[in-house]
Specification:
The complex is a heterodimer of chains A (517) and B (223). Chain A is an alpha+beta fold. Helices cover 27% and strands 14% of the residues of chain A. In chain A, the strands form four sheets. In chain A, strands 5, 6, 7, 8, 9, 11, 13, 14 and 15 form a nine-stranded mixed sheet that branches. In chain A, strands 1-2 form a two-stranded antiparallel ribbon. In chain A, strands 3-4 form a two-stranded antiparallel ribbon. The chains are: A alpha+beta (517), B mainly alpha (223).
Chain lengths: 517, 223
């Protein structure tokens, strides 16, 4: 009996150790209370409402700026170096060299471009009066300090006002209540890009003004309650982070790792994933969690009128699915991202590039591949559109869409593509052949926000699976659980089945032969 | 017949640990492979990696045991009686012919077993260990570190590991069946549990023949 007991005991102990090891609890993360203390909103030591310089009636918003600069002298020079002011950056683009690109000159596949449309688009510029290409970027008084620093929540820019404040704004009151930028400062523009809530990004929308951890674990007011600038850290008015619809270089990025390190998991196998998989890929299982985002935009249907008047059609959620001025849209909510390889560099369709429209024109191309050691899998929203294209000159077209009055050539008033395109292309000194079609285009938007709590991350078997793997389209590498070699499978299961058949036949023959004897 | 100790205590411990680990590794491994769904992918990976480490420890102990006890000699291949052993499994067994080789404490394995087990020891298990370690410590190509050590794809490692797993499963199937071909269908199993087996001495060969003729007795004994 002793002979059994010792090996049995040994096995039992090993089994116990085994169970104990594999059921080990995940390490506790930083408690919420600690985070709340760390990111507590400090009360500033300066009360602007007590400054005599601000105790007056401001007639022009430029006078407010002058008052700001009076104390914060030279701050404007920082602002005027920023992309928020210039709407362009110096970028090195692969194969193109150094270019100055940004909203100022790049086309997108939403409202297409700002040129000729500055009155409307440039409402979101941090300046006063950029209404056409003659805007004076060297005039410091045109800097709009209040757009970002208003803490009174009463500052509003005028619609189609080229960045000027709404007439109803009490400039003195706003000037007396300035401070660190809050969500509402950033969100006023960044949540509404493309002409409506959540149109562009999909992961940045008005719901984030006041949200829950389930929607955004960082911004949830029941969670860490972070402001945008807690992560988009800013030094001398130069902000961390940028969006690859406009940026090209792998620099000045605001990353998860800056707080969480590269290997934040207690499980080493999961940490190992971070070599090739971006944090966002697993931690943002879906975007547009509250309100829909625009997935497709078809300009070719624009211009239909009802009794000579433009109209809109809305779906049950209130999303505009057709607008005479813009065409037809497809909106989606709770969208599973698409996944691509990305190494932090991008190239762009630069205005004036001649390009074939045989396959969808890539408005921006995010570089990367499995073989590239700097590439990781990231989640993206791909916005697909049909937009005006000159098939003779092979140019993506900048149309003039906005106009104050009929007859100025703006499509939104006249609904005439020919004049709209002619005005737009003339304005940016590009030729127009007189013919237009609608070309398919695609634009890539990396998904970085709406990070879910850790209990709601993408699970292993959503990628490591043969059917409907989230990364089914990334075929340039092997991952366990998704990929199998058909020949090996056939050989392997064949061998097993033959073994079973073999021993079965043998066993039956043995039984028969024994019965015979 | 005489009862002698064929499988020492460690021998049995090693055998049964190995069998449990191979079963567990196959279960978790084929879940990782995408063939079945039992623990869930994440748990399967954790369990598989842990069991793999236990297996490595066991292999280390077994190697030590083989060399310190001289048991490794059991696996030296021989052509003597090899053909007879194969013929026994193909035809003799159905005629109730006697086992062509005798089992003793010094030669536990018949010539066919020697060959197959040796192949497991020097081919299949090393391939599984080697590909398994590469699998476990695989790093995707990265710029930091020594570039020439980068393996471009996990695919080749995974395929090798999978082929090995298919071989092992086939082995287990045939092995489990063949242990029923002893004196009685369960005598080999009992021996591997208790360590003791009734071994034929010179005289018992006749006895065995006699005994085997009475196949009904054998079947009864099996029940």
């Amino acid at each position: 009996m002793k002979r059994f007991i010792i090996p049995m005991l040994a096995m039992a102990i090993i089994a116990l150790i085994f169970i104990a090891t594999i059921t080990k609890k995940e390490a506790e993360s930083t408690p919420l209370a600690e985070l709340k203390t760390k990111f507590k909103k400090e009360k500033p030591s300066v009360d602007h409402s007590k400054f005599s310089q601000l105790q007056k009636k401001f007639v022009k918003p430029q006078d407010v700026t002058a008052a700001c600069i009076d104390c914060h002298n030279e701050r404007h020079t920082e602002v005027m170096k920023s992309s928020h002011w210039n709407w362009e950056r110096e970028e090195y683009i692969e194969g193109r060299g150094i270019r100055y690109v940004g909203k100022k000159n790049i086309l997108n596949n939403f409202c297409i471009g700002i040129n000729t449309n500055e009155q409307s688009c440039n409402k979101c510029h941090i300046g006063y009066g950029w209404g056409d290409k003659n805007f004076d970027f060297s005039n410091a008084n045109n800097v709009d300090c209040l757009a970002c620093h208003d803490n009174s929540d009463t500052y509003v820019k005028k619609s189609s006002g080229a960045g000027m404040p709404d007439a109803a704004v009490n400039l003195a009151f706003v000037a007396q209540h300035v401070g660190r930028p809050t969500r509402s400062n950033c969100g006023t523009c960044h949540f509404f890009g493309g002409g409506g809530n959540n149109v562009k990004h999909g992961d940045l929308e008005k719901a984030l003004f006041d949200t829950h951890r389930d929607v955004d674990v960082h911004m949830g007011t029941d969670g860490a309650n972070l402001d945008c600038v807690d992560c988009h850290k800013t030094e001398k008015h130069q902000m961390l982070g940028k969006v690859y619809s406009l940026s090209s270089m792998n620099r000045n990025r605001s990353t998860c790792e800056q707080c969480h390190t590269e290997t934040p998991h207690s499980n080493s196998v999961i940490n190992e994933h971070t070599v090739k998989v971006a944090c966002q890929t697993c931690h943002i299982p879906e975007y547009a969690k509250v309100n829909s985002t625009k997935m497709e935009w078809d300009w070719s249907t624009a211009g239909k009128l009802n009794n000579g008047e433009p109209y809109e059609i809305k779906d049950s959620l209130g999303n505009i699915v057709y607008a005479s001025i813009k065409g037809s849209f497809i909106w989606r909510r709770n969208v599973k991202p698409e996944y691509i390889w990305f190494n932090g560099t991008a190239s762009h369709y630069l205005t004036g590039d001649t390009i074939s429209a045989d396959s969808p024109i890539q408005m921006n191309t995010l570089h990367g591949s499995y073989d590239d050691p700097d590439s990781k899998i990231i989640p993206v929203k791909i916005h697909r559109a049909k937009q005006p294209y000159d098939p003779i000159n092979k140019l993506v077209i900048q149309p003039k869409t906005f106009a104050n009055e009929k007859g100025e050539g703006g499509f939104w008033k006249d609904f005439d593509w020919q004049t709209s395109i002619q005005h737009g292309m003339d304005y940016i000194n590009l030729p127009y052949s007189g013919q237009y079609t609608f070309a398919k285009t695609e634009m890539y938007w990396p998904i970085n926000h709406m990070v879910s709590p850790k209990t709601k991350t993408v699970q292993c078997n959503e990628c490591h699976t043969q059917k409907n793997s989230r990364i089914a389209n990334l075929k340039d590498f092997y991952i366990p659980g998704r990929d199998q070699n058909a020949a090996v499978e056939m050989f392997g299961f064949g061998t097993i089945i033959l073994s079973l058949i073999g021993v079965s036949i043998h066993a039956v023959m043995r039984i028969i032969s024994k019965k015979k004897n | 017949m005489k009862k002698i100790l064929v499988y020492s205590r460690f021998n049995r411990f090693w055998h049964w640990m190995q069998s449990m680990l191979i079963f567990f590794l196959a279960l978790t491994g084929f879940e990782i492979h995408g063939s079945l769904n039992f623990f869930g992918f994440e748990q399967a990976v954790t369990f598989h990696n842990f069991a793999a480490i236990l297996f490595l420890v066991l292999i280390g102990l077994a190697i030590f045991w083989h060399f310190t006890t001289g048991e490794w000699r059991q696996y030296l291949p021989t052509r003597q009686h090899l053909r007879a052993q194969i013929e026994y499994y193909i035809t003799g067994i159905f005629r109730n012919a006697p086992h062509p080789t005798k089992k003793t404490a010094l030669t536990k394995l018949n010539p066919l077993q020697r060959l197959v087990y040796l192949a497991l020891k020097i081919l299949v298990i090393p391939i599984m260990v080697f590909s398994g370690l590469l699998y476990m410590f695989y790093r995707y190509p990265q710029s930091a570190g020594i570039q020439s050590l980068n393996i471009e794809s996990l695919g080749i490692i995974a395929i090798l590991h999978t082929i090995g797993a298919f071989f092992l499963i086939s082995f287990v199937i045939v092995h489990v069946y063949l242990i029923t071909t002893g004196h009685s269908p369960t005598s080999n199993l009992k021996a591997m549990i208790t360590g003791y087996e009734e071994i034929e001495n010179e005289k018992t060969i006749d006895h065995h023949t006699e005994h085997a003729v009475s196949s009904e007795n054998v079947l009864k004994a099996a029940k």
